[in-house]
């Protein structure tokens, strides 16, 4: 008896188990069979029924759906005409191989005319994106969730609201949640929800990236009821943010251009400003600095590639020395015979610049040379809505460093003291025992050397060609003259002012006209203040 | 009064130069037209254009010398006046094409059709008439020079500052004329000319006439320049060059003298440009390139500034050298030009003509000393 009871119990348990397993198996089979008609429905009806099928698939929450829908969007789904099922194929060849879209199992090959590609229009595409978006909104991978939220935001499909709601509740990443909330707001605005909901939605949308928010809000600015004015007000808010950022971006571009101008002009500020020598070959010193960088990089590339990231640091002192030595040679060879004859100096150095350009052209060729960015100078990063490239940022930093280093040399070293003494009163300095010719040569070398290291920096943002320097010579003179001859602070202010002014004029007047306007402004400014912004005070009547 | 003024510019040396230029104006076209092509003295077609170009450059150099050599204003933007004169002439020549352009529009030049212009921009009106264009050739550069000079001289911008802002001026114009929406052909400029005053520009007769006209213009400008520099006005100009402040303190309105000579010089440069365009057959924004203006300065320096013959000689010499170098040793031309700048400023500050003159003067002085041991007063040297 006990045995029988025991066996009975066993049988019951066994049966129960079998039933449970069967039920589970049946349930699985049912889930599979449930999707099958939906998938087939993708291909059988018109666009509306396709969209319905998409929404049905999305609602199933099955992980395989996203893949199928992407295949639909990628036009890889076909309707098999003989049995009205939807199959997947790349459709290549006369007899393409077909696959079951759900399991991915091969179904052999069929003749092409049997297959009918499921057509897709923009509405379907949007539905697919929204569906895929909602399906991936809860992915464990944060990047997938982010792109899903962006995809949903783009569609603004009201059908995605429930999916978004649950995703928002589960989201832990603050930035992604903001994005989802914004996407929800956009979807609500697009739905026929009551005005009160839409007003909250407008606030939600404002949390988005200003450009996206602007794009969404513009469409509802004219909406009836309370929504329109609210959207308009929100738009004004967002527009203010946008304007502020674009102004900030312009300032940054201006500062960046200004620092380039400063680098190019600061050597000139010494030779022209402090010594009164017009050096038209100044641009060529910049060019030589850039070519030194090129040569250093070539050497590193061929012999020790591991040092590439340090190539600029190696090139800096070399460029300074090469250009500085050139400068000393020019001063000793030509300029010292022409002191007191500034116009002749101008002509002689112009001739020299032609010779140097042609020399570089003969050695390195006339074409542009490629100077690479070290890894720490390439790429960019964002601050708010501004994008800042590392190379520009480093050049700004570098220009400021060069400026203050030069300032320190002139103000704090014995050499600087002697230079200033010679500038102020040459005969008196000479009488005090300063070797003025030596000071002249060294000062000119210093100015040229700084032009050389400017060339290292410019090689990162400009094409390195024999004409590199020529493009800067007029701008550099403008900066020095505008800022005030003989005053380094004037050069700094002049360079930044001209840089920022140029970039602010550009959106209104175009790049070329903006530049012309700046040139005309400087010409007029010089009429008003012939000695520049920060004029040195003196008693001389003759220039 | 004007005749008296002009006659005052004539002396034996000026007469010789004038006669020489006029002889060139007659002889070269005759050699071109009258002799058969196989004659060794025949001047071929390309040479006519080339010599014509040299004479235009000589005129540009002459105008530059008037301000630099006699008034101490080193202009690095004279190419701008030259190009503006050229554009005025180019606009006339464009209007003369009429319906013969590629697109066959009776009014609009080809580039305007290409750029979808519906009607002629306002500043193109009047350029279908030669007299109007000829007037603009002198008025447009003159007006620009007047405005620029009025501001610059009044606020006493001098020396290198002035040089640099003249360079900025031509640079700004270069950028402006490169823009397509200037309505002046943008990058490509104006070209494909057909007629001038009803004569085809390519015909040998027209070329000869243009050459003669250029030589005549050069002679006339040379005459005007020598009249100006020999008058009392010219003496004041030299005084301004050598000691501007002192001249001002004596009571001369320095800026007015400078403005007059500056505008006159700009107009001459404009005429040079206007004669240049039909002979070369194109005018484009690269004529505004600051490098061109500064090259003109070296012609003057090579020939000798402060001598009116110098710039003519210098322009022809340097450009002949350029033609020769760019065909024989093209990669060495920039070395040669650059070296010319350096060598002339260092070793030949008076230029060719100035140095030759000094040599002759010293020789005759030595002779005079040999004849009579009383030392004559040397002419005062111009200060730098």
From TrEMBL, chain A:
It is a multi-pass membrane protein. One of its GO terms (cellular component) is plasma membrane. Keywords: Amino-acid transport, Cell membrane, Membrane, Transmembrane, Transmembrane helix, Transport. InterPro entries: ABC_transp_permease, ABC_UrtB_bac, BCAA_transport_permease. It is found in: Cell membrane. Pfam families: BPD_transp_2 (PF02653). This is High-affinity branched-chain amino acid transport system permease protein LivH. The lineage of its organism: Bacteria, Pseudomonadati, Pseudomonadota, Alphaproteobacteria, Hyphomicrobiales. Its main location: membrane. The chain crosses the membrane at residues 251-278, 310-330, 384-410, 477-501, 507-526. The gene is livH_2. CDD domains: TM_PBP1_LivH_like. PANTHER family: ABC TRANSPORTER PERMEASE PROTEIN, BRANCHED-CHAIN AMINO ACID TRANSPORT SYSTEM PERMEASE PROTEIN LIVH. It comes from the Bacteria. One of its GO terms (molecular function) is transmembrane transporter activity. GO terms for biological process: amino acid transport. Belongs to the binding-protein-dependent transport system permease family. LivHM subfamily.
UniProtKB/TrEMBL annotation, chain B:
The keyword Plastid does not apply. Its main location: membrane. Keywords: Cell membrane, Membrane, Transmembrane, Transmembrane helix. The chain crosses the membrane at residues 16-35, 41-60, 67-89, 129-153, 160-178, 208-228, 259-277, 297-320, 332-349. It is found in: Cell membrane. InterPro entries: ABC_transp_permease, ABC_transptr_urea_perm_UrtC, LivM-like. It comes from the Bacteria. Pfam families: BPD_transp_2 (PF02653). The keyword Transmembrane helix applies. This is Leucine/isoleucine/valine transporter permease subunit. GO terms for cellular component: plasma membrane. It is a multi-pass membrane protein. One of its GO terms (molecular function) is branched-chain amino acid transmembrane transporter activity.
């Amino acid at each position: 008896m006990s045995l029988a009871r025991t066996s009975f119990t066993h049988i019951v348990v066994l049966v129960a188990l079998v039933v449970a397993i069967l039920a589970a198996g049946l349930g699985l089979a049912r889930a599979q069979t449930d999707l099958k008609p939906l998938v087939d429905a993708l291909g059988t009806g018109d666009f509306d029924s396709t969209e319905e099928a998409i929404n049905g698939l999305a609602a199933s929450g099955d992980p395989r759906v996203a893949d199928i829908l992407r295949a639909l969007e990628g036009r890889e789904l076909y309707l098999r005409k003989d049995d009205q099922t939807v199959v997947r194929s790349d459709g290549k060849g006369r007899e393409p191989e077909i696959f079951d879209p759900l399991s991915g199992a091969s179904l052999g090959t069929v003749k092409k005319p049997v297959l009918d590609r499921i057509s897709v229009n923009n509405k379907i595409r949007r539905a697919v994106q929204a569906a895929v978006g909602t399906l991936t909104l809860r992915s464990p991978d944060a990047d997938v969730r982010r792109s899903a939220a962006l995809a949903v935001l783009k569609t603004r499909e009201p059908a995605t609201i429930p999916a978004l709601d649950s995703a928002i509740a589960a989201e832990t990443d603050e930035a992604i949640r903001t994005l989802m909330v914004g996407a929800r707001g956009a979807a609500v605005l697009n739905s026929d929800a009551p005005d009160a909901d839409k007003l909250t939605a407008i606030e939600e949308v404002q949390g988005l990236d200003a450009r996206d928010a602007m794009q969404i809000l513009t469409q509802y600015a004219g909406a009836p009821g309370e929504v329109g004015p609210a959207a308009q007000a929100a738009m004004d808010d967002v527009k203010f943010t946008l304007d502020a950022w674009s102004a900030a971006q312009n300032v940054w571009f201006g500062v960046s251009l200004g620092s380039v101008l400063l680098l190019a002009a600061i050597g000139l500020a010494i030779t022209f400003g402090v010594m009164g020598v017009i050096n038209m070959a100044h641009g060529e010193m910049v060019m030589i600095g850039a070519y030194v960088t090129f040569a250093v990089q070539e050497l590193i590339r061929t012999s020790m590639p591991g040092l590439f990231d340090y190539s600029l640091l190696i090139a800096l002192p070399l460029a300074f020395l090469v250009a500085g030595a050139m400068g000393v040679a020019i001063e000793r060879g030509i300029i010292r015979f022409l002191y007191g004859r500034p116009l002749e100096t101008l002509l002689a150095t112009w001739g020299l610049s032609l010779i140097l350009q042609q020399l570089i052209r003969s050695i390195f060729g006339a074409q542009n040379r490629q100077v690479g960015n070290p890894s720490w100078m390439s790429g960019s990063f964002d601050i708010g809505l501004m994008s800042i490239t590392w190379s520009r940022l480093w050049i700004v930093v570098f220009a400021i460093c060069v400026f203050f280093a030069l300032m320190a040399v002139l103000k704090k070293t014995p050499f600087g003291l002697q230079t200033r003494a010679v500038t102020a009163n040459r005969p008196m300095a000479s009488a005090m025992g300063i070797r003025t010719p030596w000071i002249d040569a060294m000062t000119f070398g210093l100015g040229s050397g700084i032009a050389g290291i400017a060339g290292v920096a410019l090689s990162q943002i400009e094409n390195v060609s024999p004409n590199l320097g020529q493009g800067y010579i007029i701008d550099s003179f403008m900066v020095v003259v505008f800022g005030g001859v003989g005053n380094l602070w004037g050069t700094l202010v002049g360079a930044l002012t001209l840089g920022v002014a140029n970039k602010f004029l550009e959106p209104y007047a175009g790049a070329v006209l903006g530049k012309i306007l700046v040139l005309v402004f400087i010409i007029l400014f010089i009429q008003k203040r012939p000695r520049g912004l920060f004029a040195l005070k003196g008693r001389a009547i003759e220039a | 009064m004007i005749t008296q003024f002009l006659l005052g510019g004539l002396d034996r040396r000026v007469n010789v130069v004038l006669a020489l230029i006029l002889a060139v104006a007659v002889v070269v076209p005759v050699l071109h037209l009258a002799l058969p092509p196989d004659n060794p003295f025949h001047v071929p077609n390309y040479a006519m254009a080339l010599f014509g170009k040299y004479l235009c450059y000589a005129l540009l150099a002459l105008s530059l010398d008037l301000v630099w050599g006699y008034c101490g204003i080193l202009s690095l933007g004279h190419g701008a006046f030259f190009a503006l004169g050229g554009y005025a002439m180019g606009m006339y020549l464009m209007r003369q094409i009429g319906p013969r352009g590629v697109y066959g529009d009776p009014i609009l030049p080809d580039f305007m059709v290409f750029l979808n212009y519906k009607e002629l921009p306002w500043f193109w009106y009047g350029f279908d008439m030669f007299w109007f264009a000829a007037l603009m050739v002198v008025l447009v550069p003159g007006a620009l020079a007047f405005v620029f000079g009025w501001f610059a001289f009044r606020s006493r911008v001098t020396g290198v500052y002035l040089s640099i802002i003249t360079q900025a001026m031509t640079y700004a114009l270069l950028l402006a004329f490169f823009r397509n929406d200037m309505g002046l052909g943008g990058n490509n400029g104006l070209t494909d000319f057909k007629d001038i005053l009803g004569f085809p520009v390519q015909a040998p007769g027209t070329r000869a006439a243009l050459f003669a006209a250029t030589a005549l213009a050069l002679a006339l400008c040379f005459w005007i320049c020598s009249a100006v520099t020999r008058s009392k006005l010219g003496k004041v100009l030299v005084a301004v060059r050598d000691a501007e402040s002192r001249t001002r303190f004596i009571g001369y309105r320095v800026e007015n003298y400078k403005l007059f000579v500056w505008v006159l010089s700009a107009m001459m440069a404009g005429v040079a440009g206007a004669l240049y365009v039909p002979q070369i057959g194109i005018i484009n924004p690269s004529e505004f390139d600051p490098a061109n203006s500064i090259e003109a300065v070296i012609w003057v320096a090579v020939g000798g500034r402060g001598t009116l013959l110098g710039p003519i000689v210098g322009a022809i010499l340097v450009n002949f050298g350029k033609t020769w170098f760019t065909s024989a040793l093209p990669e060495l031309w920039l070395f040669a030009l650059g070296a010319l700048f350096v060598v002339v400023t260092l070793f030949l500050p008076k230029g060719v003509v100035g140095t030759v003159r000094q040599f002759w003067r010293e020789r005759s002085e030595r002779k005079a000393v040999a004849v009579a041991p009383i030392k004559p007063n040397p002419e005062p040297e111009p200060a730098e």
